Amino acid sequence: MQPLFIDLTSKKIVIAGGGRVAFRKAKTLEAERAHTTFVAPDFSDDIILLARQRGYKLIQREAQAADFKDALLSILATNDREANHALANSLDSGQLVCVVDEAGEGNVIFPAAVRRGPLQIAVTSNGASPKLTRKLKKQLDEQFDESWTGYSEFLGKCRDYIKKLSIPSSEKNEMLAELLDDRYRLSEDERERKWAYLQSLE
């Protein structure tokens, strides 16, 4: 499988299922600002609350293939293996489909992810060893602590600014490379001094 990062803003996501797993997938996607619909005969209290908070749509009945029309991402998370299997077989082969209880029936796997501002690191074993995936995520959580949040935001701000400067490309690349010095990650004061210096170059 090829890892991809996909912008789901304002895109249609349909989740078949109303229980714990469906809720967990929705929480993972909560920050994406997508148009999310749940389809299930019953919904957990957590899903009902999330739908009220986020404006998600709830359709209370068994999911049907037509429910997933025009969905960029379909998540089959019912607690019925046969239902998930039947839905997976009924969807268009060009759709993005995650089958939570049998990854091989879909074409999307949710990786374990570490997010620090704009920085995202994702890891998966493609189902070979979920325990390994969880272990690696824990290690990444520890390695990339919260200092990376402000630092990655700083890098993005500086890059946008440096790109607009009227200087040779070689100088821009040197400036961008210099920002990778660890002192900028470890010190907010260093970041502020650097930002002030860059603004003085106009």
UniProtKB/TrEMBL annotation:
The catalytic activity, as recorded, is:
precorrin-2 + NAD(+) = sirohydrochlorin + NADH + 2 H(+)
Q: Which Pfam families match?
A: NAD_binding_7, SirC_C, Sirohm_synth_M
Residues covered by the Siroheme synthase central domain: 116-142
Q: In which pathway does it act?
A: Porphyrin-containing compound metabolism; siroheme biosynthesis; sirohydrochlorin from precorrin-2: step 1/1
Query: What InterPro entries does this protein map onto?
Result: Met8-like, NAD(P)-bd_dom_sf, SirC_C, Sirohaem_synthase_central, Sirohaem_synthase_N
Name one molecular function that GO assigns to this entry.
Answer: ferrochelatase activity
Name the UniProt record assigns to this protein: precorrin-2 dehydrogenase
Organism for this UniProt entry: Cytobacillus firmus DS1
